[in-house]
Amino acid sequence: MNEDKMLQQRKSAPEKRPNGTRRRATAIFTVAILCIGLAVAFQLTTDIMAPLNSADAMNYPECDTDLTPELDGQGVPGLSAVIIKDGAIVCTAVAGLANIEDEVPVTAETLFLVASLSKTVTATALMQLYERGEFELDDNINDYLPFDVSVPVAPESPITFRQLLTHTASLRDNTNLFSVFTTSGADSPISLASLTEEYLTPDGEYYNRRDNFVRSAPGTMMSYSNMGIALAGYLVEEISGRAFDVYSRDRIFSRLGMSHTSWRLADIDLSRLAIPYEKSWFKFTPLEHYGQANYPDGMLRTSPVELAHFMIAYMQGGAYEGRRVLERDTVDTMLMSQTKLNPFQGLVWFSVLLDDETVWGHDGSDDGASAGMWFNREEDVGVILVANGNWHDESRIFEELFEEAEEY
């Protein structure tokens, strides 16, 4: 039962009995009300906080698809995949090394940086607040921020939530600042509040009207924007009153049994985390783990098995094993075209054709990391594939994994 319904039940509980009712009956009723209140409070607390059991102890069958030959072909040290069908993981596949220097093999429980797949989690967090009636998709985001954001060439044109989630907000990634926003070996000390205000307001330390914005009014041009999703993450903080990483943990990861998943290196068991590598002259060079100030757009670390819980929730209309993170209507809204500028763009999620079949998902790439997750809503099958390096062309691997999925 969702929180709103439980709160309505609590508010509609009977008032005290009329005067003249025997004292004993009144006392019994008062105790009953207290018990009901405690039960409702307990249910609300467990719905928010109690984690679904992790999948660590589950031994999934190995997929028939062999990823080992793909290591050389893709130029990555390690690969990990899951196949999903009918709301469940049917098999996993792994190959290569999570840590070359210490010869640590990739396992189904190895954690990976999943780059821009992270954006789908950020969108989920924001749309949970949409479900609560906190905003409408076409509202001006300035009504929800402690500072105003405007595009220099069109200062009177509002930026909306829908535009943020469809990359049509005319916000540009200033690549000159990437090194400023990246911290080697640790999470970035820059808060989302500081990052977004300093980047988007004229007096800000990182403000640049030419490099931070598209020269087009919001809603008139598509321009893929990491900073737009970082701003969406900050909006989650402002609207919910909770730190974005904490909100994600309590409202998404805990509910879906993603107990080893986190935005923060400080919260990760580094012994389980695949080291990112770059390849040059046929040699892999390890990169230090890193954090970024704009982390809601790409710093999620998880395993394909735990990420599968999240994707299954979308495939099943917003719930995984009875734990709901979104209503079905919200999922349907997110997985439909949301802008005339690109008919394949939903709310962060987008669709592509794979073997003439429409699949929804997202892909991602960052230094020493590649990832993709795609699912066919009609066939109820999906595939997740990640690597601790930058692959060349993963499409053939996805095709092979989807072909295997059809056999189950």
List keywords for this structure.
408 residues; alpha+beta; Beta-lactamase; 2 domains; 7-stranded antiparallel β-sheet; two-stranded antiparallel ribbon; 15 strands; disordered N terminus
Q: What share of residues is helical?
A: 25-40%
Quote the distance from N terminus to C terminus. 33 Å
Q: What does the oligomeric state look like here?
A: single chain
Total separate domains? 2
Task: Look up the CATH topology of the largest domain.
Answer: Beta-lactamase
Strand ordering within the main sheet: 3-2-1-15-14-13-12
The CATH class name of the largest domain reads: Alpha Beta
Number of helices, counting only DSSP H or I runs of 4 residues or more: 12
- The gyration radius over C-alpha positions equals 23 Å
The largest pleated sheet is described as: 7 strands, antiparallel
Residue-averaged pLDDT: 89
CATH superfamily of the largest domain: DD-peptidase/beta-lactamase superfamily
Low-confidence stretches: 1-49
CATH architecture of the largest domain: 3-Layer(aba) Sandwich
SSE string: HHHEEEEHHHEHHHEEEEHEEHEEEEH
Number of strands: 15
Strand proportion:
15-25%
Task: Give the class from helix and strand content and strand pairing.
Answer: alpha+beta
Q: What does the overall shape look like?
A: globular
